[in-house]
Design goal:
By secondary structure, this protein is α/β, with parallel strands linked by helices. The protein contains six helices and eight strands. The strands form two sheets. The protein has a six-stranded parallel sheet, sandwiched between helices. Helix 2 (59-66) packs parallel to helix 3 and helix 2 crosses helix 6. The protein starts with a strand and ends with a helix.
């Protein structure tokens, strides 16, 4: 007998309730990243993505979108390691954007990565409650995200404090990143 079901976001809680689970509570991921750290000054011409190089994270879609962006002197910085790292590096080369993409491995100083960026992008196919999106907002970055199941909508109010793009809409993601670059052309 289960006394309580704890999930990471309201969307998941609703799904459990539809399946007649009783006593369901959402307890969000917690981060203290912004408490003692100065936020980004948003002066660097860098759009940041963070995560494992795995199918879930959608870096393949991000790179395809980036290839459609008139980035000028902006760079896309992808921080993380994983099984698809080399495949994503090769894709950037195939798309002709390798000079505009920085592939950085995992880091123990993620705060510095947020501070060196002006925008954060999430290209995931699905998520839980997205810690990197929460951290990016806490560090003052404009956020652009696919409205994938199940977390971004609970973190970003579209057009208010970030931008949501239809899931897996590469054209839409490219358009929104282009708009952020246009608005913040430093």
């Amino acid at each position: 007998l289960v006394e309580k079901t704890v999930v990471l976001c309201d969307h998941d809680a609703e799904n459990f309730r539809k399946k007649r689970a009783r006593n369901v509570t959402a307890i969000y991921n917690f981060s203290s990243i912004g408490e003692e750290n100065e936020p980004s000054e948003c002066r660097e011409k860098v759009i940041l993505a963070v995560g494992r190089h795995a199918h879930q994270k959608g870096f393949d879609m991000l790179l395809k979108a980036w290839a459609k962006v008139d980035a000028g002197d902006w760079k896309l910085r992808i921080v993380g390691d994983g099984a698809l790292y080399e495949e994503n590096v090769s894709l950037a080369e195939e798309l002709g954007v390798s000079e505009k993409v920085i592939f950085a491995g995992s880091t123990s100083d993620i705060v510095e990565e947020y501070r060196k960026a002006s925008c954060f992008v999430l290209s995931s196919r699905y998520e839980g409650l997205v810690m990197v999106l929460i951290e990016a907002r806490m560090m003052g970055l404009t956020c652009v995200s696919f409205d994938c199941p199940t977390g971004p909508r609970e973190i970003i109010r579209d057009g208010v404090d970030g931008f949501l793009v239809e899931p897996e809409d590469i054209e839409g993601l490219a358009k929104q990143m282009s708009e952020v670059i246009r608005m913040g052309n430093l």
